[in-house]
Design brief:
The chain is α/β, with parallel strands linked by helices and about 475 residues long. It has 3 domains: about 180 residues, FAD/NAD(P)-binding domain (3-Layer(bba) Sandwich); about 110 residues, FAD/NAD(P)-binding domain (3-Layer(bba) Sandwich); about 110 residues, 2-Layer Sandwich (Enolase-like, domain 1). It contains 14 helices and 21 strands. The strands form 5 sheets. Strands 1, 2, 3, 4, 5, 6 and 16 form a 7-stranded mixed β-sheet that branches. The longest helix has 19 residues. It is an enzyme of class 1 (oxidoreductase). This is Dihydrolipoamide dehydrogenase. Its EC number is 1.8.1.4. Its cofactor is FAD.
């Protein structure tokens, strides 16, 4: 049996940060990983998807300015785009990130980790050998999620794409059908259409990005249409089959139509990777999410020893929020290891309170959309007295200079009682870069009267902040 202060199960971004911060606090730590160190984000999600999306966005930006437009006449080079993606992902080679763990003084044990009772983790290696790790202070579960396939007959038999195949494919499919209308569906439709695929989206709902402000889904719908993506709202796939001779796939829908394509991407949600985690050994239901408090301590287990960080706790399933939770979790573990209480609340370093009111999101479609905080609807449902302020970013001088055909939209949600911003949604070029200003305003609870004195430089797109405050009446 090997003993460490902290045993981390899962070597993705959350696990790396927890272990690194624990070691930085003077504790010992080990990371258990069955696949590649770096996790889904590094090899099959955030990094490769943005690598696929950026070339099309760069080309569109150049063509949005007269004088540069004339210099950009060719289409994207798919082979070079895919090669550039592979340079970022190393095609799954985790040598660099494994070396980082070693350099940081973090042990790495490769194999499948399962809880084996209080403070114990059994790791089964590729050769079948079992090694038992014991935690003096904490076991931290950072196993993340995996794609959930929708209940479509035959989908599990055709080799359907999930985010994993959609971000790592070595060739552009001639025809791609995407099932879903969320962020992954919209981004992958954008990326593969930019590379030359014919793309059809099958969206069960009547809008894209349904959890966002309506303007976000409307703008992405327009943008995908401009790219040539076909979107069918209110339609669900019911049956799929692959022809073994031609390798084409026929997708039958609930409105009686049939689509023939080369690949099908299922992008309808995620489920926790907890089915084979040994949760039953500590009295937890198998295969379920792991509810936690603001220090990421699993609330259903007594004692301060079991934590769950990142997507697996379902609080804010985004890589940047997983890293944020990891910093808070490691701080809480260190505080408790030192014999000091680490209660929730009070804006302490060990309390991941931003999960509840200031989660930034960025979708790299064309146009980009970004948000943070509450939508107007969510704020009203929470009982806040709110006022929404909207402004077309197109009317900002800096935006017109940035692109001849700039199109963007901004919306603020203001808590009238406190006079602070509680939500913001932006669409258009650079929206994903502009959203952090709103994040700071929300987290800092900056009064609007004070925010008025944060003067944006002219002529920048950020001047939209001045216009929003003017529209509010300041």
């Amino acid at each position: 049996m090997d003993t460490y202060d902290v045993v981390v199960v899962g070597g993705g971004p959350a696990g790396e940060v927890v272990a690194g911060r624990a070691v930085g606090a003077g504790l010992t730590a080990v990371v258990v990983e069955a696949e590649a160190v770096g996790g889904e984000c590094s090899y099959r999600a955030c990094v490769p998807s943005k690598a696929l999306l950026r070339p099309g966005a760069a080309r569109a930006e150049a063509r949005s300015v007269d004088g540069a437009r004339q210099a950009v006449t060719a289409a994207l080079d798919p082979a070079r785009v895919l090669a550039r993606r592979d340079r970022f992902t190393g095609r799954g080679d985790d040598t660099g990130q494994a070396d980082w763990l070693d350099g940081a003084g973090i042990a790495l044990v490769r194999g499948h980790g399962r809880l084996a009772g209080e403070r114990r983790v059994e790791v089964t290696g590729a050769d079948g050998t079992v090694r038992t790790l014991e935690a003096r202070r904490a076991v931290v579960v950072c196993t993340g999620t995996e794609p959930a396939l929708p209940p479509v007959e035959g989908l599990d038999r055709i080799g359907a794409w999930t985010n994993r195949q959609a971000t790592t494919a070595d060739a552009v499919p001639a025809r791609l059908v995407v099932i879903g209308g969320g962020a992954v569906a919209c981004e992958m439709a954008t990326a593969w259409r930019s590379l030359g695929a014919s793309v059809t989206l099958l969206v069960r709902d009547q809008a894209l990005l349904t959890g966002w402000e309506p303007c976000a889904g409307e703008e992405v719908t327009r943008g995908l249409g401009d790219l040539g993506v076909t979107i069918r709202f209110g339609v669900s796939a019911v049956r799929v089959a692959r022809d073994e001779t031609t390798r084409t796939v026929t997708v039958e829908t609930d409105d009686g139509t049939a689509l023939v394509c080369d690949e099908v991407l299922a992008a309808v949600g995620r489920r926790p990777r907890t089915a084979d985690l040994g949760l039953e050994t500590v009295g937890l239901p198998v295969g379920e999410w792991l509810p936690v408090d603001d220090t990421c301590r699993v609330t259903a287990v007594e004692g301060d020893w079991l934590y769950a960080v990142g997507d697996v706790n379902r609080r804010a399933p985004l890589t940047h929020m997983a890293k944020y939770q990891a910093r808070a979790c490691a701080a809480a573990i260190a505080e408790r290891a030192a014999g000091r209480p680490a209660g929730t609340g009070g804006r302490q370093a060990w309390s991941a309170e931003a999960d509840r009111f200031a989660v930034p999101q960025a979708v790299f479609t064309r146009p980009e959309v970004a948000s943070v905080g509450l939508t107007e609807r969510a704020a009203r449902e929470a009982g806040l007295a709110v006022r929404a302020v909207e402004y077309r970013i197109d009317d900002v001088a800096g935006a017109a200079l940035h692109a001849d055909d700039y199109r963007g939209f901004a919306k603020l949600v203001v808590d009238e009682t406190r006079g602070v911003v509680v939500g913001c949604t932006l669409t258009g070029p650079m929206a994903t870069e502009l959203i952090h200003t709103a994040t700071v305003a929300i987290v800092g609870e900056v009064p609007l009267e004070r925010l008025w004195h944060a003067v944006p430089a002219f002529p920048t797109v950020s001047e939209v902040w001045l216009r929003l405050l003017e529209a509010y009446g300041l």
